[in-house]
Amino acid sequence: MPGIAYCRAFLYAGLSYSLRSSQFACSVVLLGLTGWHIHHTETLKVGDALSSRIGPFYVPTIVELLVASCLGILFSLWFLVAILARIGNGALSFGLEMAALSSVWVMWIVGAAIISNKWPDLDWCRHTDLVCRMVDAIVAFSWLNWAIATFLLVTAFADFGAAKESFSHRKGPQTTQTATAAPVSASAA
């Protein structure tokens, strides 16, 4: 297995135990943070520090990041197993990986951009309110997931480019043509 495939497996798995668990681990952390925020806003009895709402509500961008995290976890587990077990080494597997990774990449960049724009600076409440620190962490992990997905896209393209010639050689058996030498006559010698 080429070194770039190990790098991809390492990135799919994440950053917590080794670099092998980055995409998975960061998606799990973002899943927990967004789940906490949704639970917090849905069970709210008093006013929220970040909005003027009183009573239960939810932020649609947080829900979008929760869905992106769930998809990121599922895709990272599947492609981690596929890379390490060398399942589907062909162009179809590459296409599926690119489609899944691109869709999650778009979800993370949209979610991270919207949430960063919605709450650009939470210094005023970061030291006094837990929800401000949690939103800061959500913003950080959504950008981190986007960055890891970007690097995974680049490494997947590089890995496909390096293995593209081997994909074309798998299509059929290779035949070689040998040249036959003309017989040398005894009189010429």
UniProtKB/TrEMBL annotation:
The chain crosses the membrane at residues 58-84, 96-117, 137-162. Residues 173-189 have a biased composition (Low complexity). Residues 170-189 are annotated as: Disordered. Keywords: Membrane, Transmembrane, Transmembrane helix. This is MARVEL domain-containing protein. It comes from Crepidotus variabilis.
